[in-house]
From TrEMBL:
PANTHER family: DIHYDROPTERIDINE REDUCTASE. GO terms for biological process: L-phenylalanine catabolic process; tetrahydrobiopterin biosynthetic process. GO terms for cellular component: cytoplasm. Belongs to the short-chain dehydrogenases/reductases (SDR) family. Homodimer. Keywords: NADP, Oxidoreductase. It comes from Oppiella nova. One of its GO terms (molecular function) is 6,7-dihydropteridine reductase activity. This is Uncharacterized protein. The lineage of its organism: Eukaryota, Metazoa, Ecdysozoa, Arthropoda, Chelicerata.
Length: 31
């Protein structure tokens, strides 16, 4: 889970990629 969290932080500031990652994680109730 820590690696996934790190990936979210890395992609979080990249606009479209960040949005896609956040959307994916929300679908799985991880955020």
């Amino acid at each position: 889970m820590s690696s996934n969290s790190r990936r979210v932080l890395i992609y979080g500031g990249k606009g479209a990629l960040g949005s896609a990652c956040v959307h994916f994680f929300r679908q799985h109730n991880w955020v």
